[in-house]
Amino acid sequence: MRPSMHRCPIVLALGFLGMTTAEAAKLVEVRPVDDEHLMIHWLDSKVHYQDNGKGKGAFMGHETKGYEDRLEVYGRPLDTAAATSPASFTLVSPDDPGFAVPVTPTKAFRRSKVGGTPWKWPEPEYAMEHTVFLRLPRKLQQGKRYRLQISSATQSDATERTLTFDVFRNVSEAVHVNIVGYNPAHTAMKSADLYMWLGDGGARDYSDYVGRRVMLVDSKSGRRHDVGRVAFWKPSGPDYGGWNLTRSPVWNVDFSPFTGTGTFRLVVEGVGCSPEFKIRPDVYFEPFKTSVRGFYYMRIGEPATKKPVPRQPRFIPGKDPEGFTVFLTNYGPWHPDWKVGGGDKWDTKDWAKYRLPGNPTNPNAYGGHSDALDWDRHAGHISIIWDLLLPYVLTGGKPGDDNLDIRESGNGIPDLIDEAQNEVDFWLRLRDDKGGYGTGLNNPTDDHKTMYQAQSRPYMAWANALNAAMLADAFRIAGRRDLVKRYRDAAIEAWNVAGGEDLDEKYTIGNGMTRGRDLKMMAAAFLYNVTGDRKFEDAMAGESVVKGPTSFLEEKDAYNQLWGTVAYLMCAKTKLRPIHHPQLLANMRASVIHEAKEKHLTNSAKWPSRRSSDTAYGWFQSTQEVQRVIVAHAISSSPSEREALLRALILEADWGLGRNPMNMVQMTGLGSRHADDIYTSGQNDGTPGVHPGHTPYMNSEPWGTGFMADPRWYASKGYPAWEQWPQGEALWPARYSYSNNEFTPQQTMRGKQALYAYLYALGASRSGM
User: Fold this and answer.
1) 410: Cβ–Cβ under 8 A, 6 or more apart, which residues?
2) What is the pTM of this model?
3) Which of 52, 252, 394, 438 has a Cα at 20 to 30 A from 722?
4) Do the beta carbons of residue 741 and residue 617 sit within 8 Å?
């Protein structure tokens, strides 16, 4: 929770009285947490980032030397000792008899957090913000007015604030909702959470609030709807990834039966209300759109014709930058030198000694989506193709919008497919002079003149066969026969080049290991859909890991066949082709549902957060991996089973869309409160803020030393000790901390995009079931 950075207006009746003291901590706001607690927020300083599109680092995002960021210091910092003394505050009311004479709080708790850093290597300046929570000796009364007086000893620039306690207008940080909104058709799964961490005061105990009324208030008409009661959910404890995300017990606030539409605030009696959110069938459109735009702004090679401007330079051989060349090499993940020494070999800029004889180049090596905020593109990225297309394949093309504000919008092809096609085409271009398929490109040399293409392998031919075949299947659904043929033929060519080799080779694609035979299985499944040739169906069946109704489609660091299994399941569901392996099909259907229950639904029922993401890949808490649940929901025929699966999907989506400890969308550019000032593209490009659609890692563990590599640098300057904080607040607004708030399309974006696109497709069909 960082109220000063929140993007929604606080609808609270506040007035300003008293002296303003120059050269002192800036008082930002005073508002209730509930009828027994007030929160006061101060800034000691604030960072102003250079964002004019000028200087050495313009448009590139992370090559930041030469930036002219500025730290504005408001004056003397907050005196935290005085600010946590109850004697520094009094509260008086002209119309509440309980506060007719000034009342002193019984307790004062604090939390302080770094609020930003300007660029200054190796030890930057940093902004600080403080929140103090006052425990009151008696309850505030609905509709009554109060005046808080603050001692000058705190070094606050303002010493008085007035407020009216009104639960229908006071936005409380204790009420956690999906601030984007809900689908009215989801009549068994609209809910929010009630909890609050009070800094060194620990968790707020809302036991006495069980049974309190829960209401929805129409923001336009003011009409109030009784929709439920507060109920206890789970005590504080381990959650997704083993972390304690909330550091608090959690109470639930359910309003599932409500089916009205409009813009609302959720109100909890005696506490306050949420920010505004919408209830409407297409409520997931904006998350879907923003996510797709996030992928667009990770592309390399885009012209500088859109606003905001995509990353520059374009790294197109012979075009931009001037003299830029891509050399072919024999170096890559299968080379003996690859595992010598530490570090990410894709970040190594000089592969010159591995050039092929004669120094051949690839003039067609351009496009694709970058890895994090680097420029390299490697085989681990291709899972973004599969998850971009997954909801489109599962829903028969329902998320087919062509108006998502990417460069190709309006070209007659769904933007979702355009984004996947960009990545597919990149990998098809990485051919060597013998027709082999390359493993990727490294980061450019410091002068931006050279990149190197990694070795070709049959493994990558299997990967290209799958990528092109899945894209051809999507074009089949879209009715584009010309493009079906192009990518079907490309897939068959890659299949033939693979030649049955590298079947037991493995590479980390997305999160886990994928074998060559997994790629073959999945390519075969999609090729059967687009050709009808039984040899591909038999090849798929021969490589399938499904041997019974409880098989897992994925084992961490071993294999993964989810997307090929989807191809066969949808082939049967749509009656596209004859099914010659009916027992395998039945086992596939049962296995997907079984795995979704075992790895997702079980956790959602026991974690305080109610999240359902696969914890096997919980390196970054913001990752949302529920693809198996999406597939299981799409193929299940049991109404109760589908309801349980849909509930898990919605609860996971809710978490990333605001139902989390920071009360913010865990993505740039979306919603009234969202992540911003993270280590991403769009910095210093002449457009305020950063690029949209990017989900930060929210990692709190060190990757090295210093403010870029170690989030504990920020944590150590806050209060209380980081070990006492909710892990769900592990985000600092620091544009230069790649270890905390960078991201990758394949780790923190693709699963989220699949989730939002699928839920949007359900709303677009005007049915949640």
Assistant:
1) 402, 403
2) 0.95
3) 252
4) no
Give the whole-angstrom CA distance, residue 697 versus residue 675.
11
Are 651 and 612 a contacting pair, CB within 8 Å? yes
Kind of pairing between the strands at 175-176 and 158-164:
unpaired
As given in the structure block, the two tokens for residue 421 are 């096609």
Which residue type is seen at 622?
S
DSSP state of 598: I
CB 709 within 8 A of CB 703: yes
Which residues make Cβ contacts (< 8 Å) with residue 559, sequence separation at least 6?
513, 514, 515, 518, 545
List the chain residues with pLDDT less than 70.
1-22, 61-67, 764-769
pLDDT at position 187 is 81
H/E stretch holding 756 = helix 750-764
Cα dihedral 504→581→595→632 (10° resolution): 120
- One-letter amino acid identity for 651? L
pLDDT per residue as tens digits for the range 299-309? 999 999 999 99
Reduced to 3 states (helix: H, G, I; strand: E, B; else coil), residue 500 is coil
Q: What is the DSSP string of 154-207?
A: G-BSEEEEEEE--TTT-B-TTEE--SSEE-TT-TT--EEEE--B-GGG-B---G
Q: How many residues does the chain have?
A: 769
Three-state SS string over 245-266 comes to CCCCCEEEEECCCCCCCEEEEE
3-state secondary structure of 633: helix
* Cα 217 to Cα 268: distance, rounded to the nearest angstrom: 11
Question: Containing H/E element for 27?
Answer: strand 26-34
How many distinct helices (H) and strands (E) make up the chain?
16, 29
Give the Cα separation of 333 and 355 in Å (integer). 15
Taking each helix axis from N to C end, the angle separating 534-543 and 562-573, rounded to the nearest 10 degrees, works out to 130
Q: Residue 713 corresponds to which amino acid?
A: W
Omega cis (within 30) before 118: no
Asked if residue 537 lies in contact with residue 544, where contact means CB atoms within 8 angstroms, the answer is no
Hunting for tokens 């890692």 — which residue is that?
Answer: 697
In this structure, are residues 55 and 68 in contact, taking their beta carbons and an 8 Å threshold? yes
CA 330, 334, 337, 338 torsion: positive or negative? Answer: positive
- Strand locations in 377-449 (E): 377-378, 440-441
The answer to whether the CB of 604 falls within 8 A of the CB of 227 is: no
Whole-angstrom Cα distance, residue 389 to residue 385? 6
Residue 140 near residue 229, CB atoms below 8 Å: no
Instruction: Please provide the DSSP assignment of 690-735 as one string.
Output: --SS-------S-SSSSTTT-THHHHTTSBS-GGGS-GGG-----T
